[in-house]
Amino acid sequence: MKFDRLVQKFAGDDPKMARLVTYWSVTVLLYLLCIGILWIEALSGVADTTPTARLTALAFSGHFLFYHLIRRSKQLNLAPAELSVYQGCFAIVVTVLGYTLVGPMRGATLVVLLVILVFCAFTLEARTTRAMSVFAVVLLAIVMLYMRISAPQRFDAKIEIMHFVLIGTMVVVVGVLTGRMSDLRATLKRQKTELADALARIQDLATRDDLTMLPNRRHMTGLLAEEERRREVSHHPACLALIDIDWFKKINDTYGHEAGDQALRTFAQEGRKVLRGHDVLARWGGEEFLLLLPGTTLADAQSVLERFRRQVEQLRCAHEERSFGVTFSAGLVELAESEACSDGIRRADALLYQAKSSGRNRVMAAAEARVS
Questions:
Q1: Is 77 left (phi over 0), alpha (psi -120 to 50) or beta?
Q2: Does the chain have fewer CB atoms within 10 Å around its N or its C terminus?
């Protein structure tokens, strides 16, 4: 447990941050390996001790700085790709400087350049990865030329040219391949985003009515099942209302089906404005709607529904330079403690029938199911 807390404190709670710190830790291990080899050569007299010490200090000071930049990247508004560019360029510089200190086997250290570019491919775009490849080759050429001029006795021109051609070719190839990998990664990321958007749209289409943009019957059925499970635990009150647009067939026959659609949309829009945030109004079928009022007593639900009814009866729907009014009738019930929502809907349907038989544009309410 202490070790887990230590790791959490070191890497942070954010998974993305922890991943960046993990990458940083891997690069530290790689540096330890390379610096260790360099110190073996320095202690054996092949490499100079003072430049080796300075390079070691530079490498680990830089990594200490990058750790703090990673941990504070959000505050500093540093994107992971931007940090990767800085780290990659720093690593290339340190590797090329290390090349100047190693003895006859220094050609082997250039493999680290390839590792750096491969690491960069996981976070950088293809264009940036290729630019870093060019930077590595150009810097290496400048350093090799300087080494040949400043210490010709230590650096044989033929060997340096061979190293440059070999590493230059490999860096170019790796740059192209990692660039391609970056392109593929970007494509996969874009496809993943598009797939997520498509799934969200499909989910929305599966759960929402196209005309009114309210939850559809399938989605409402699932919400009712969830409400039943919650009520088994919490025993809180809940009410259901079955709502029907009055004289809907007459609206269609008189003004046309487009006017009927406009009436349904207007009703739904008003419901979204008037009803409370936790109430759920769904299109149950045709001109019929089901309203779920969780955590609500019958008296409160009746107040909400009456306010909704008064707002709707004041509306006017415009269609082809003509206008008409819309009203609704509703049957409202408060669910008994162990009553299923399906039974409550049946009771609400019976009350809706009474409301329509009594003249429409009214709410009929009942608290509990009758016991026969």
A1: left
A2: C
